[in-house]
Specification:
The structure holds two protein chains of two kinds.
Chain A: E1 4-13, E2 16-26, E3 31-35, H1 42-50, E4 60-62, E5 65-66, H2 72-78, E6 80-83, H3 95-101, H4 114-120, H5 122-126, H6 137-149, E7 155-159, H7 167-174, H8 177-182, E8 186-191, H9 194-200, E9 203-208, E10 211-216, H10 223-231
Parallel strand pairs in A: 3-8, 3-9, 6-7, 7-8
Antiparallel strand pairs in A: 1-2, 1-4, 4-5, 9-10
Chain B: H1 2-31, H2 38-56, H3 60-86, H4 92-113, E1 129-132, E2 135-138, H5 139-161, H6 163-173, H7 175-180, H8 185-210, H9 218-232, H10 237-257, H11 262-276
Antiparallel strand pairs in B: 1-2
Helix pairs in contact in B: 1-5, 1-8, 1-9, 1-10, 2-3, 2-4, 2-8, 2-9, 3-8, 5-6, 5-8, 6-8, 9-10, 9-11, 10-11
The chains are: A alpha/beta, B mainly alpha.
Chain lengths: 235, 287
Amino acid sequence: MALLETRGLTAFYGDFQALFGVDLDLAEGETMAVIGANGAGKTTLMRSIAGVIAQKPDMVRFDGENIGAMAPDDIMAAGIAMVPEGRKLFPSLSVEENLLMGAHRRKVDGPWRLETVYELFPILKERRHQPGTALSGGQQQMVSIGRALMSNPRVLLCDEISLGLAPVVIKDIYAAFPRIRETGASIVVVEQDIGQAMKVADRVHCMMEGRVTLSGRPDELSREAIHDAYFGAAA
Amino acid sequence: MIWVDTVLQGVLLGGLYALFALGLSLVFGIMRLVNLAHGDLIVLAAYLILMIVTLLGLGPFLAALIALPIMFALGWALQRVVLNRVLGTDILPPLLVTFGLSVVLQNALLEGFSADSRRIPAGWLETASLPIGPISVGVMPLLTFLSAIGVTLVLQFIFYRTSLGRAFRATSDDPVTASLMGVKPSSVFAQATGIAMVVVTIAALYLGTRANFDPTTGPARLIYAFEAVIIGGLGSLWGTLAGGIIIGVAQTGGAQINPEWQILAGHIAFLVVLLIRPRGLFPRAFD
């Protein structure tokens, strides 16, 4: 049984439909990448799973329970943590306080606590008393990932973590993924950077205009098939 | 020496204004809610303390201790049942609701306690004073000022040294992202309003023991509270204390020149600060 499932997931912004019946399964310990161009519905998918966009209860299931209609804080408490697009650090909190916010409600024993997050991203320990928003973009992304890990989530949702970052910084951030995977967390990575997504994922789904247009293991998918699914066959 | 006395009395008076303002500052700082019923809630708390004093025969400080949890519960319920429903991107609905609440409170108090002025009896404390060199300082004004500093310290501690304070600041920064961290904004807001009502009760204790009050006293307290909050910088607790002191000193200074200028001098000080520092003296670095 999948740890996380979406079934016929739809989402609307007013009259505009952003998702059209998305079905996805995420197994325990699996890393799934969702790729697609701007406006494909990737962030809407993540926000729907995290509860920011309310759904019908059975459209999202986690560990056998319907969570589609649950509030974001309850979904987080259940074990799904999100690294939101744009980092979204709290400007009035220091780096360490931002990290501690991740464990505000979900306090479970697990591999992730302040010390282990600082081991994963040592620069954060040096900057722990600075305001989170005073850091570089890459360091802010490390805080955002660390903050989500602090809840010891069973599912980690990473929304466009490479957005706006230099390639060398992206490489540094993705270098942390094997360590995160070792702890047994399932991961959903939403990316426009196809190369990075293919490197870390066990399975890849490509989205276009609110629909999943291609699914498979990274080694099964040809460049042409991904190109067609990403941009549309006529592109 | 007269001016030293004037400034000292102004600083002590500022403590009372700071107490009026700290609850308002707390609520505004966390949820950007301007509570137009704040002054009326202070008056409501003063009547509650008066009732406890009258019915149970307790002293005002003990009565205030009993009133604190009652007012916390009232604030919590007010936020959960009424104010959370109107909070959003539009600032007009909460303004209208709290304005309506102000009208309802004033009329309910008028119905329940009549228009007669009341005062909470404080016994010998009302006239007690301490000599400091050639100057005499009233014990109640001194207690008021020390309470204002104490309340500011406690609120600072809650804000910057506790998990609840982190949640307050995070929710104030970004309620959606805070909810992704497991924070329930509606619950955080209710706790904040509950704490604000505790501060309101402390303010009510000193309002009621130092001056007469009646059901229509609230709006004037609200104006002083607003001015102190804005002078200090929206959402800044120490700034709010400083704002209260500036108004207090301006009022006693104005009264020293001409007793008719007391209230006017406070408002002029407010306008001068607003002209020089439109965001207040100690604004938050990000808003």
